[in-house]
Amino acid sequence: MSRGATLKNEKKNKSRGTWGVIGGVILLGLGKMKWLLAILKFAKLSTLISMILSLGAYGLVYGWKFGAALIYLLLIHELGHYVACKMRGLPVKPTLFIPFIGAAVRMERMPKSASEMAFIAYMGPIFGVLSLVPPILLYLTTGSSLWLVVLSFGALINLFNLIPFGELDGGKIVGGISTKLWFLGLVVIIAFVIYTQSVLATIIAILGVIHLWYFHKKNKTLDKDKQEIKKARTLYQLLQRVKTEPHLFRAAIRKFNLEEDSLVQLEVEQLFEKFRQTSQNVNLRKPIVTEGEELDEFAQARLQEELEDYALYQKAAETFLQQFEEYLMEKETELQYAESYRTTSAKSRIITFAIYVALIIVLSVCLDVSKELLHMHPEAQEFFNR
Hints:
Number of strands: 2
Shape: elongated
Strand content: under 5%
Structural class: mainly alpha
Largest sheet: 2 strands, antiparallel
């Protein structure tokens, strides 16, 4: 190939790469706009629309055939997470595709344990391995370099996702094995960032460090948080017993006192402030109605006013208790999940570790073999190196 042709190809590849980055940034920015997400959610077509946007972006940069193949790889991978969520009874929102970032199944609530999270995480790469079977068969049948590129790229993105760090599947998987592996993942992702100078990998590394810091902080205060939530649950049970007595109800809340920097204490105070704003004029005693008692007009009006005030109090108290219960359930679930990192059974850890290692081996072999075959297809190797 002449020097002029080489320069021309380099210029073309650079131009495509630049437009790819620009397109990805623009579409990612749009994807984060609340109004766009609201429209997609309202239309219940977020998966299809985001898939079409991604296909268009990939098609402009890599060509439509490979763009469609890339969408297929991402879709099958996310299908694994979706199936896992359904198997565990976890409600999920539609899969969202983000050009040049990937795709994600969005869970509506957290799993109950680290082992359950690991199961959901490794089901993605398992389906990712299955997604490589058609490209292998098509390459063996047709000999087309396109399927070799799809095979290589599919193995690469699934293998990258197994780095044991942050919000990557690997980070969630090893959480069900040992959280110490996150530090190994930190070394790997830093080395990857230095070697590739990838912006996406840099963002993943930064978010992963934040997650690691938050987990370490949460783990240090876990026992304290459990005690506070236990005391708050005791308060809730007491309030349920005295909710018919405004004086006792308010007194119980006022007596609740944790440490000054307690987030639980702050939440109770905020809920109590809302309660006071809606029932501040209520008498502190429940109105007494004596059956058969005759009242004059003034006493009847006074009693009616007290009954209306009491009804207002009851409504405010029920709202307080409902919001308090929702808060407690959310925090108890979070604490149960956090504690599960300590209590995961040895059997579960061994199974998760075996699956994790097996996935790494299979995907590494696929990537290694495909890279060797790329040497037989210079045009495919050039495409893959974009």
